[in-house]
Amino acid sequence: SSGDRMPAVGMGLWKVPKSTCADCVYAAVQTGYRCFDSACDYGNEAETGNGLKRALSDGLLARDKVFVASKLWNTYHRRQHVRLACLRSLRDLQLEYLDMYYVHFPIALKFVDFETRYPPEWLHDPSAPSPRMVPDDVPLRETWEAMEELVRPPCARVRERECGGGVVDRGKKLNVKKSNNQKNPTFENTT
User: Fold this and answer.
1) What is the DSSP string of the chain?
2) How many CB atoms lie within 10 A of CB 34?
3) CB atoms within 10 A of CB 173
4) The pairing of beta strand 186-189 with beta strand 174-177
5) CB 122 within 8 A of CB 115
6) Which of 39, 128, 179, 182 is 20–30 Å from 57 (CA)?
7) CB 123 within 8 A of CB 133
8) CA 185 to each of CA 15, 59, 102, 176: distance values in angstroms, whole numbers, following the listed order
9) Is the pTM of this model over 0.85?
10) Least confident piece of the model among 16-30, 82-96, 124-138, 160-174
11) C-alpha to C-alpha distances, 44 to 6, 13, 109, 135, 176, nearest whole angstrom
């Protein structure tokens, strides 16, 4: 274990409107919340970042006293998109590191470029005559290995992340056991 502790009580940011999110996060810090659960798909990470930045700037707490989690969205499961998605969350949250970063859902969907639509949401093309999800055949192993790469700069301070039920601590690797079923490999901590 990294020795870090996640506060037992946290604020989930799902469905918090953009218009009130920054003030809500700031008020939560004032009230004593020290854990914030964010995600690209919530569509309010920039506003969450504004609230956290204001609380940090006003001296309500130091960065090492708040635990911030975010999640990898379904459209970013390919190796080449994992780091970019993490960096986007870091930028929006206005943070140098995340305390936890994990896969939101183990459902890989076809990539939607950040410039096309962000957050990308569930439907590949919402304006299509028949909007639908478009699955992408990305093995969980590929996503996991890309998540492991996040312990390298500039995401090196991502201290812990959870994926598929396992936790990886900074500086440790998760051994991905070879399997005949590459979509569902098994994992084993190596300490």
Assistant:
1) -------SS-EE-TT--HHHHHHHHHHHHHHT--EEE--GGGT-HHHHHHHHHHHHHTTS--GGG-EEEEEE-GGG-SHHHHHHHHHHHHHHHT-S--SEEEES-S--B----TTT-SS--S-S-TTSSS----B----HHHHHHHHHGGGSTTSTT--EEEETTEEEETT--EEEE--S-TTS-EEEE--
2) 17
3) 13
4) antiparallel
5) no
6) 39
7) yes
8) 33, 45, 17, 7
9) no
10) 160-174
11) 22, 8, 21, 25, 33
pLDDT in tens, 26-71: 999 999 999 999 999 999 999 999 999 999 999 999 999 999 999 9
Q: Is 33 a catalytic residue?
A: no
